[in-house]
Amino acid sequence: MATRRRLVLAGSAVLVLAAVGGLALWAPWGASSASPESPAAPVGRTVQVTTGTVAKTTTEKGTLRYPAVKSPTSRATGTLTAVPAVGTSLGRGDTVYEVDTVPTVLLLGTVPVWRDLSVGAKGADVLQLEQNLSELGYFPRVPDEEFLEPTAEAVRKWQKALKIPQTGEVPQSAIVVAPDVVRVGATPVAVETPVGAGTTVITLTAHAPSVQVMLPLADQGLASVGAAVSVTMPDGTLAPASVTSVGRAQVSGGQNSGSQSQSQDDPSTSRVVPVEIALTDPAVADGLQEASVQAAFIGERHDDVLTVPVDALLARAGGGYELEVIGGDASKQRIPVTVGLVADGVAEVSGDGLHDALTVGAASA
């Protein structure tokens, strides 16, 4: 459930509760009979009108983790002879694992590995191979979709660097494809364990951690791609972040809304929207594999407005609000104000005579 920030005002007998707007407002003793210019009422403390931002936020629980990218299965039969440590970053050309000391290497791209590649092959997977060989410095030509002799020559140079037989061909077992740099998330099979085709030998995750929040459906308008979010880390650090994706609504617990029409009609069923959030600086999560965090989504926001603490607002007898302006000679004058957005104990105000740095009265702290 959302934890919405609500104003809690501490004070003494100088506080009264206004029925308008749900605000706790202060009033001096005898304020109900005092005139707007009455100098007799004591002031708890003085504050200044300031120019700033008022923003409403909704805070949700989230999970910081490294999302799984893929879990490659071995296409070779033999003994697992090498696998990188959990947490290792793997990029283009890095070895993902070895079977019988023969490496399976990471290439970057999105075309799946579905066949062996050799001279005569044509297609998007050939283009992907050549692009990777070019980036690794083995293919000097412009990549295309044809596996010709220059491609085979580049493959042989690559194989020589890997210290494996220089065949000029690329079997399916030689490569794993991922869209970007990845991280080793788990190694379910120990080195020296026999493996066969189809054995899951490693789990690869995204290189950078992200936060997943299951946002209540009623609050889905807060999450749009690119929207700013503030994440509170386990140690209390506030980390700036932004929304990277918003999923389809689903029943709380993981069922997609598209397959549970009956649940959608049940008012007792909680429905949520999965939201992925990227940290601006992933380094703030160093040392964390998974952790519970808090994500604050910004709702309505007003910038460059005049603001006062909520406890500076006075309820007017006929409705509305006013401020008690304190002059340099300690004189007092009440002026009516219009209250705008209120959040986190701060109120947006406007009205004649208001300006930045104006001194006004407020309830005792």
Automatic annotation (TrEMBL):
Regions of compositional bias (Low complexity) in chain numbering: 250-264
InterPro entries: Peptidoglycan-bd-like, PGBD-like_sf, PGBDSf, TAT_signal
Domain of life from the UniProt record: Bacteria
SUPFAM superfamilies in UniProt: PGBD-like
Region (Disordered): 242-271
All copies of domain Peptidoglycan binding-like, residue ranges: 123-170
Protein name: Peptidoglycan binding-like domain-containing protein
